[in-house]
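Data availability excerpt. The first of two example chains:
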Amino acid sequence: MRKDKDRVRIGDVIQLSGETDIKLLWGQFLDDFYHAPADERYALIKDEPPYSEGLEEKWLFILAAAAHALANQYGLDVPEWSLGKKYVSEKALYAFDSHIKAHQEYLEETSLPEFKERNLMLGDNILSRC
């Protein structure tokens, strides 16, 4: 069993991505957030992730949207950093880099508001875990 201090924070997704697949870190962050005691969840999203050379910029947008959405869903303060304009994509980014119009429309309709306002059309299950 993981110790509390071993929880993956939102910034860890970036910091550890050179050592571990970023998608695995993303999943671990979500698992840790959902399983953390209510009074410890804010600590997992409060700190701004560091910029990292070579990182796909979309991950910074995704993490900001996630911090914003999770805060809203769990009644937490929205971290100020997550509201920065630098976390808004200039162009729409679609899940799976879809170019199929019907799929894009579906993603636009179902994406969470905190993701849509950052031009991230990733669908309604971006924060889901199996």
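And the second chain:
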Amino acid sequence: MTIKSSELRAGSVLMFDGQLHLVLETEHVKPGKGPAYVQAKMKNIETGTIKTNRLGSADKLDDVSIDRKSMQYLYDGSGRGAGPFVFMDTGSYEQIEIPAEAIGDQARWMKEGVEAMVMMFGGRILGVELPAAVELAVTETTPQPRGATATNQLKEATVETGARIRVPPFIDVGQVVRISTVTGEYLGKA
């Protein structure tokens, strides 16, 4: 199926230059001089390289239909956060191993039991989409400094998955916080 470049959205998968590409983000640009165009940041699924491509607003692209399956994260096969990560199909209870390369940086937000969308094409795993936000417990942080309530300072904290984030000074060890899986930012207390 072909689509116009102006219809591209983050998460779309398409055939570009003969290879599968995942669209990470798009920006519609209307310069003062010249025609409008679409700036698309795409990840080549075959090689893993990320490149920003400029597309004319009327360009046609080959959209690829991929399978999205809801799966539950069970555990890390290595036990060290290096993968392979084991997921279970919530319908058939079939378990599959997904290499760390397919998950990338999002592995730091994966907690056992979290539901994720696994993207597949032709039986091959392309990637994993985590929920927009996850709730994780703080395992390590410094105590609130004196006078920090008057300012908008942030402090370092480590969550149960081992990821380091910045949190407000009133957050203590043991509290559960909501974190954006896209930006890694603190969203609030859970």
